[in-house]
Request: fold
Amino acid sequence: MIVVMSYGATENEIESVLVRLERSGFQIHLSRGVERTIIGAIGDKTRIGDIGLEAMPGVEKVVPILQPYKLASRTFQEEGTVIRVGDIEIGGETVHVIAGPCAVENREQLLTTARLVREAGATMLRGGAFKPRTSPYSFQGLEEEGLKLLAEARQETGLLVVTEIMDARTLPMVAEYADILQIGARNMQNFFLLKEVAKVDKPVILKRGLSATVEEWLMAAEYIMSGGNYNIILCERGIRSFESYTRNTLDLTAVAVVKHLSHLPVIVDPSHAIGKWRFVPVMARSAVAAGADGLLVEVHPNPSEALCDGQQSLTPGNFAAMMSDLKRVAEAVGRKM
Ligand code: PEP
Ligand code: MN
Reply:
C-alpha cells in the first residue's frame, strides 16, 4: 500500500506512521517530495484495518496497491481454473450450457424440459426448488419435493443438477441432491452463507449481485475460497442500470475484465440479464464471443404457463435453434460445444 501524508505533515507525524508500520511488520520505502511525503509499505495488507493508519494525524489517505482479493486473482494463479464435476470440465475448451426452468413446478414440466435440453446439447439442468422472489405472494418453490424431482431428472437424463441455495439451514439438504450449488444475485454478499458453502465439497456458481462491482463480486468469491472451497464459477447475470426496457443490463465488459483479473471460470446468464426471451439467443451468442466459459439459460415447455420468469424463458424449440447457432460462434472463437 501507499500512505500519502498530508501537505505540511510534521516530522513527528511522519515518524509515528513509520514506527507504526514497522512494528506491524511492514517493509518501508520512503519518498520525501518537496511538497509531501509518500510512504510505500509492503506487507500483510489485511493488517491495515487493525493498525488504524487512516486515523493517524498527518495521514491524508491510504491507497492499497495489491488487489484485495488474492486467491481469486490471476496474480495468485496464472492459469485458468478448470472445474471437474462428473465428466464435465468447466473452464476448459468446451463451452457448457446449463438449461432448465426458473423453478421446478412438477414432474412433467421438469422431465420434459430435461429431455429436450439434453437432446439440444445442454450438459446440466437448472431448476430452483427454493426461489428468491421479490414478492412474498409469488410462488416460492417446491423445496425438497423439487430437489427430489431434480435428482430423478438427473437419473433419467444424466444431466448434472444446478440449484440455488438460499439459506444455510437448508444447505445439508440441498447439497445432498445438487451437483453444483448456485448462490443467487441477492445473496452474493450474504457472507454467512458464503462461509457455509465454503465448507461444502461441491462447486459453487456465484452470481453477480444486482449492483455489485467486479471487485465486490471477486471479494465474494474470495470468501468462499478462503474458507476452503476453490471451485467457484462466476456468473454474470446483468446489473441494474437506468435502462428499463430490459430487466437488467448484461455487462459483457465484466466477462472480459474478470477473465483478465481472475483465473476462475465465468459463465453468463442471458435470461435474467435481459429478461425478454426474444433477445436471449443473441446475448448468448455475444457472451460466447466475449469469452464466456458457459451459459445458464431458462427454458420452459410452456412459457406462458410458467410460475416464474415465463417472459424470459425459451421454448425447447427456440433453445435448440439457439444451440445450433451457438456452436458456430464457439468454433469461431476457438471453443467447442
Ligand atoms: C435464478 O437463476 O433463478 C435467479 C433467481 O437468478 P438471480 O439470482 O440472478 O436473480
Ligand atoms: Mn428465473
